[in-house]
Design the sequence.
């Protein structure tokens, strides 16, 4: 039941975030080095399945693609699949779309490309998500009891509050941890970084292969240019 509630809260989180403005405080920089860490991506996948996938689909991603971040099919089957799902299935949710619309006012969006769709004038989509998921604080004037520095009056409870604890917003607009969670501040930031890294990876799983291929092509062209230059010089050396 706790996991279901967390998933429902996540739906409200990202439905509301979809219309968030780009104003407010500056976005924090997402630790991009996590994209190169298979351990971070694997932990992010675990957090995604446990806190997001109850309500949000990732309908353009199959479970078995997680083998590309170092997981075996047995690990995926044992740790990340819901009952009845298969390793080759798409990451869909069983929640009825009509019920979701009744509960949340809109169908929870697909998260496959969420990191790529949140880029703004202040930074990348990963920067937005990293700041957003760390910007919740207690606000008893709101129906959910929560608010967010990145998106004021956000219509969502804090899906990761058990991990982070409860923050309060001071008169100087600074966040202070009033009630500790299961993780300390550094560990929570690290967990959010892992989750955002996974969301970023999921939006373009081949990005690293594409980058490596691009570097290899440029290196080949550089070598080819050198030989072409030497060939041209040899061909014209006796021409006056």
Sequence:
């Amino acid at each position: 039941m706790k996991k279901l509630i967390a998933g429902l809260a996540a739906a409200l989180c990202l439905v509301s975030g979809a219309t968030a403005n780009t104003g407010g405080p500056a976005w924090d920089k997402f630790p991009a080095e996590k994209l190169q860490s298979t351990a971070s991506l694997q932990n992010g996948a675990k957090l995604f399945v446990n806190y997001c996938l109850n309500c949000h689909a990732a309908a353009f991603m199959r479970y078995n693609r997680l083998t590309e971040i170092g997981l075996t099919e047995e690990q995926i089957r044992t740790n990340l699949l819901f009952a009845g799902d298969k390793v080759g299935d798409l990451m869909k949710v069983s929640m009825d779309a009509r019920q979701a619309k009744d509960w949340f006012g809109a169908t929870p969006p697909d998260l496959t490309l969420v990191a790529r769709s949140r880029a703004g004038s202040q930074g990348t989509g990963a920067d937005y998500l990293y700041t957003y998921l760390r910007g919740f604080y207690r606000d008893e004037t709101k129906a959910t009891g929560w608010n967010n520095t990145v998106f004021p009056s956000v219509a969502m409870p804090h899906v990761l509050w058990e991990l982070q604890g409860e923050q309060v917003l001071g008169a100087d607009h600074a966040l202070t941890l009033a009630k500790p969670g299961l993780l300390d501040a550094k560990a929570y930031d690290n967990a959010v970084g892992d989750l955002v890294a996974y969301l970023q990876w999921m939006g373009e799983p081949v990005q690293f292969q594409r980058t490596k291929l691009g570097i290899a092509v440029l290196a080949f062209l550089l070598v080819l240019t050198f030989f072409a230059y030497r060939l041209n010089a040899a061909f014209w050396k006796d021409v006056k």
The two ends are 87 Å apart (CA to CA). Residues 207-236 form the longest helix (30 residues). The chain has two domains: 2-205, 208-240.
